[in-house]
Design a protein that fits this description.
The structure holds three protein chains of three kinds. By secondary structure, chain A is mostly helical. Chain A contains 15 helices and two strands. In chain A, a hairpin with a 5-residue loop joins strand 1 and strand 2. Chain C is α/β, with parallel strands linked by helices. The chains are: A mainly alpha, B mainly alpha, C alpha/beta.
């Protein structure tokens, strides 16, 4: 009885597929650490968590959209628009303040997200097609209206560089090297936590699960389906805006052609984390584990002797395999 | 009423729009639009994304989508390029001459594209993976392989006679156009006159009923995605021959255009509906606009904005036409 | 009669000039179990929607708990304790039992935050109020249909239901589950909660209701006490037609050699040890509740559900039914249970629906489709079964239920089958069409076709078959000839099982 209860407890925190994913991550990390012991050092882990924060935040946005039964591929264009517009406004206005940058980027994000939300919730356009359209509209407009010129590190306002170097705390290793936990990582964790709270403890969050499960039942229950969908795309837009600022602060270079085209590398971890593309099923923890797995893989290819050219191939392979596994499982559980 | 009108006269409306676009371009771009060279360049561009659009249409007719067509075209192109430049099977060139090399290269590209289609078909028909995700994954796999093979660089310098496919003319008609017309006719025949085509439409409109009616759903799906891959392979041959090179990632802008042309041509993304004549009119119309924008020296980005806007606009119109013709059957209870 | 809970007075409603309800009166007492029956299109669903406040009547008034409403809004209806449970139950498959039970109430209360303890407590309390137990954290998609219904009932009760309206609640559950549902309803009755069943099915109506209201063509035919009705009188009230059905008599004129023989066929979880023979010209009725394995057996015979063990012989030849294609080539046809999803391509034309099974016959010598031939074939079959269609190009969804079913039958007859399996051939079809379809089936048998008819309506089986197999829990528990028993004996036998 006791062990039974314990099992249920563990199941509550991690679903079965998440346990498998966690195991794979652990085994693979040990394998990589075996090839290169420094891989599992705290310093490297801090670094990885810093560099994957913007991907993680984007992934959470995609996760929420998938949960509601849609898909969004325009988030890269939103992120780069928010970032590039913010950088340009800061340069033009002379205000060198990271909060101002976040404000602008989030405003851009939420407005563009609202356009997606409108197309999906009011005009009922299939989400893939709607966001494929807006991906091109947003990015095209950015390049035509705002410009195509890249802004290099020297020109970039100082606040981004300072923000990129901010650590929440630093540790000094036995070899005297200082490791810091970046503020990026903390932001990712806070956003993940916030998203989890919204999904778990608000009617809005349960509404997102509900419309992902059965739209018609949600309507009959009195949920405002259009408003929930609208929120979902706005939320994904805001997260994209935040991720954009983190991205530019990380690489200290603002190029309006970046990010767009990398949609799959963000969708991959979400799918890998067990989120069902038909909506209604998926967890924040699964998404975080998915992000961890993809980050791990991308950063260890060279360690295991493969050039970075393999990255795209492996991302695709992971998506194909995880989609196949989950389809196969759901088929088995349906008894076909 | 408006909706019903839109729906029933879809192809006619589209045809009128196409003629309208043609007239507008001819009037506002005098001496630039109505020239032989413009028509030749238009008709050599149509086939590339036209064939890719047909490939995507096939998947859409089954209720799925094929996002991997451009990656398939890339991989097939790389395969052909390897043979054409003698990196693969160099002994071919020696004793047997250029023509054999070219034939082998084309066959190799087509075999690759059929295999890629087979992978998609297997994932979708047998594993029953959702088409969006399956082809999103294979999209990266196929272009990933192309990147690994080429290490990200382009391959250029194909035999002179191979370039005829993409650049030659017969009686001033560009070769790509001839190939395209032939491919369109074959596809029209397949869709309208064969039992495969009939079953494809039935499967797309209700896969359960088609299975219960004795249609081999899995067989049809696998064949559809293989055919889709095959058309992507054909597009790649024209593409690499026209620009005399192949680089992974080439043609990625075509995905938007191809999907745009499909919905513009009346293909229902949820499956079962759409015909090749609508698609062809959509393709021509898009090309007319495309060349007009080229003459006006629009940047590729601003063209993307216009394509994106058109895609959304068509879908919004579809929304109105379906919400007018279908009585809302939803029940709202507070 | 007990105190009145709901009273409907002189309610009329027209849609685009068509009178859907014509001056209807009805009343439901506190704690009463009432049945509303009528054929499809009789106005049942309009009446429910009016009671739920979703549809406004053109005339008349609705009195609930003594309050008169001229303009009843959905929220009024809910506040007065009226809860509708639709046929699809409107549950969230991906959410837990507890959440499904409690969420709607919290939405109505306009809550913004979720208290999980409260959700669980509410659900637990309501389940214990009706003395039932379900694992609260189980996802609803993993429940049986009966338990899903229970969840939907609990959800209604939480919203302080005084009247629960259940739309076609018994079509998808087994006999045992129906009994279970009835016991729950009786518990509710003790608590003074009324139930209104809405149904077009006849047999179950009679065992559930205290009173029955019959609608036909938007008019009320009358209120009856359940014990004064039997199958024939009720179907007469519903259809307005005296159904003259001649019982089927099998003549052994097409030979005694079985065309289909099944030996010890088993499939884990579906059915076990099924053996029977079908001779040409026979109609075997398979009767058993949903979930008894009847449909699964039919699917196995048609190559859609691979059995674990056992043998199938066609004309004495051992065959492996591994696909519908194989089954069709061996002369089998299968009319599926779910006409709309499994039988028809709703948005495709009548013509395409008809020829989908016989495409091979329509190819010319170049293996290309001959569209003239296709048109001719379709026309011929539409005429043969007198399917009423606006045109051959019309979408199948534009047809009435009876015509749709004849369309599906025609598509199979076109394959010239030797053996025809019909699964619930008359579900959701008006009585006149029902009779017509029965006559078609009997005529086919007289011409030598072997027929297996699956149904859960005893009268349908009794009047149209020469042999009956009773299937319970995956096994054939009885096999008998219709000439050896009376309809009442069959009824008794079924309800005792």
């Amino acid at each position: 009885m006791m062990t039974n209860n314990k099992n249920i407890q563990i199941q509550k925190i991690f679903s079965q597929s998440e346990v498998y994913l966690l195991l794979i991550i652990i085994i693979y990390s040990v394998f990589v650490a075996f090839l290169n012991p420094s891989f599992l050092s705290l310093g490297n882990l801090f670094n990885l968590s810093k560099s994957s924060a913007s991907m993680g935040i984007l992934a959470i946005g995609v996760f929420v959209v998938l949960l509601s039964g849609g898909i969004d591929i325009s988030f890269t264009a939103i992120a780069i628009s928010g970032e590039y517009i913010a950088v340009n406004v800061l340069l033009a206005s002379g205000v060198d303040n990271i909060f101002f940058a976040f404000l602008i980027s989030c405003l851009v994000g939420v407005s563009l997200g609202a356009i997606n939300g409108l197309l999906v919730s009011y005009f009922k356009i299939p989400t893939l097609i709607a966001t494929l359209g807006t991906l091109n509209i947003f990015h095209g407009l950015l390049l035509t209206v705002v410009g195509t010129k890249a802004i290099n590190s020297a020109q970039l306002p100082d606040c981004f560089k300072a923000f990129g170097a901010t650590n929440v705390f630093t540790l000094t290793g036995s070899d005297g090297v200082r490791y810091g936990l970046s503020v990026f990582t903390v932001m990712f964790i806070v956003i993940a936590l916030l998203t989890w709270l919204i999904l778990k403890y608000t009617m809005l969050g349960r509404g997102i699960y509900a419309i992902g499960g059965d739209v018609e039942a949600a309507e009959r229950a009195g949920l405002n389906v259009s408003r929930i969908k609208f929120f979902v795309y706005c939320y994904a837009g805001i997260l994209a805006g935040i991720a954009g600022i983190i991205h530019v602060s990380l690489i200290r270079y603002s190029n309006p052609t970046y990010l767009v085209g990398t949609e799959l590398s963000v969708i991959a971890p979400v799918v890998l984390g067990g989120t069902r593309i038909t909506g209604g099923v998926g967890t924040v923890i699964g998404t975080i584990l998915g992000v961890a797995m993809i980050t791990l893989l991308n950063n260890s290819l060279i360690l295991i002797g493969l050039s970075s050219f393999w990255q795209e191939f492996f991302t695709g392979l992971i998506v194909a395999i995880s989609v196949s596994l989950s389809s196969y499982q759901s088929r088995k559980s349906m008894g076909i | 009423m408006l909706g019903k009108y839109l729906k029933e006269t879809r192809t006619t409306t589209l045809f009128i729009l196409m003629v309208g676009a043609f007239v507008v371009m001819s009037v506002f771009l005098p001496g630039k639009f109505l020239t032989l060279s413009n028509f030749q360049s238009m008709s050599s561009q149509i086939p590339e994304f036209g064939l890719l659009a047909i490939a995507i249409m096939l998947a859409m007719l089954t209720g799925g989508i094929d996002l991997s067509v451009i990656s398939i075209a890339n991989l097939a192109g790389v395969g052909a390029a390897l043979i054409l430049t003698g990196s693969l099977f160099p002994q071919l060139g020696g004793g047997y001459g250029e023509i054999l090399v070219i034939i082998v290269a084309i066959l190799f590209a087509l075999v690759i594209s059929l295999l890629c289609g087979l992978v998609n078909g297997f994932l979708i028909a047998y594993i029953e993976a959702p088409a969006i995700l399956a082809t999103l994954g294979t999209m990266s796999i196929f272009s990933g392989i192309a990147i690994v093979i080429t290490r990200g660089y382009g391959i250029t310098g194909f035999p002179e006679s191979f370039l005829f496919i993409g650049n030659g003319t017969i009686f001033s008609i560009p070769m790509p156009l001839i190939i395209f017309i032939f491919c369109v006719l074959i596809m029209a025949l397949i869709l309208n006159k064969t039992s495969f085509g009939f079953n494809l439409y039935m499967l797309g409109s209700n896969p359960i009923a088609s299975r219960f009616s004795g249609i081999n759903n899995r067989g049809i799906l696998v064949r559809t995605y293989m055919l889709s891959g095959f058309y992507a392979g054909l597009a790649s041959i024209i593409m690499i021959s026209r620009v005399n090179s192949i680089r992974p990632g080439y043609g990625s802008a075509y995905l938007l255009q191809a999907i745009l042309v499909c919905v513009l041509g009346g293909v229902d993304p949820s499956g079962g509906y759409g015909n090749i004549s609508g698609l062809v009119i959509g393709i021509i119309m898009l090309q007319i606009l495309q060349s007009g924008f080229n003459i006006l020296a629009f940047s590729p980005f601003s063209k993307n904005v216009i394509w994106g806007l058109m895609l959304i606009l068509v879908m919004v119109l579809n929304f109105y036409s379906s919400s007018f013709s279908k009585r809302p059957k939803k029940l709202k209870i507070q | 009669m007990a105190e009145e809970l709901l009273k409907i007075q002189n309610v009329s409603k027209s849609y685009a000039g068509v009178r859907a309800l014509d001056n209807v009166n009805m009343s439901i007492g506190k704690g009463e179990v009432h049945c509303l029956v009528g054929e499809n299109g009789s106005g049942k669903s309009t009446l429910i929607k009016i009671i739920a406040g979703v549809v406004k009547p053109d005339e008349g008034e609705i009195i609930i708990n003594g309050k008169t409403f001229r303009n009843l809004r959905p929220i009024d209806s809910i506040n007065e304790g009226i809860q509708v449970i639709y046929q699809d139950l409107s549950l969230f498959p991906n959410l837990s039992v507890a959440e499904n039970i409690s969420l709607n109430q919290l939405i109505v209360e306009k809550r913004r935050l979720i208290n999980w303890k409260e959700i669980k407590d509410i659900a637990k309390k309501e389940l214990s109020n009706i003395n039932r137990e379900i694992n609260l954290s189980e996802r609803v998609e993993n429940l049986s249909i009966a338990n899903k219904q229970l969840v939907a009932i609990c959800r209604a009760l939480i919203q302080n239901a005084k009247l629960i309206i259940m739309d076609e609640p018994t079509t998808a559950i087994t006999k045992r589950e129906i009994d279970y549902l009835l016991s729950v309803i009786l518990d509710l009755k003790k608590r003074g909660i009324s139930t209104l069943f809405v149904s077009h099915k006849l047999s179950e109506v009679l065992q559930i209701a205290e009173r029955v209201t019959v609608l036909r063509d938007g008019k009320k035919i009358g209120d009856y006490s359940a014990d004064e009705l039997d199958y024939d009188t009720l179907s007469f009230y519903m259809s307005g037609k005296e159904v003259v059905s001649s019982p089927f008599s099998y003549e052994e004129k097409h030979g005694r050699k079985p065309m289909l023989e099944v030996k010890n066929l088993s499939k884990k979880g579906d059915f076990k040890d099924i053996s029977f023979k079908l001779k040409p010209g026979e109609i075997i009725g398979v009767i058993g509740p949903l979930g008894s394995g009847r449909t699964e057996l039919a699917l196995s015979l048609f190559g859609l559900n691979k059995p674990d063990s056992g043998e199938i012989y066609i004309n004495g030849q051992l065959v492996r039914m591994d696909s519908p294609q194989k089954a069709i080539s061996l002369g089998l046809s299968y009319l599926p249970e779910d006409r709309l999803h499994q039988g028809l391509f709703l948005r495709q034309s009548v013509q395409n629906n008809l020829v989908v099974t016989i495409l091979k016959k329509l190819l010319n010598k170049f293996k290309l489709l001959d569209h003239n031939k296709k048109y001719k074939y379709a026309k011929e079959w539409v005429n043969r079964l007198s399917i009423n269609v606006p045109s051959l190009e019309a979408a199948a969804q534009a047809l009435s239920g009876g015509n749709q079913q004849r369309l599906v039958i025609a598509k199979w007859l076109a394959t010239d089958p030797k053996i025809f399996i019909l699964d619930s051939p008359t579900v959701g079809i008006d009585i006149a069409s029902k009779n017509n379809i029965h006559n078609i089936i009997k005529q086919l048998a007289r011409e030598g076709m072997g027929i297996i008819m699956i149904s859960d309506e005893a009268p349908e089986i009794f009047r149209n078959c020469n042999r009956i197999m009773v299937m319970i829990d995956g096994s054939i528990v009885r096999e008998l000839n219709t000439v050896d028993i009376t309809e009442d004996e069959l009824f008794d036998m079924l309800s005792s099982n």
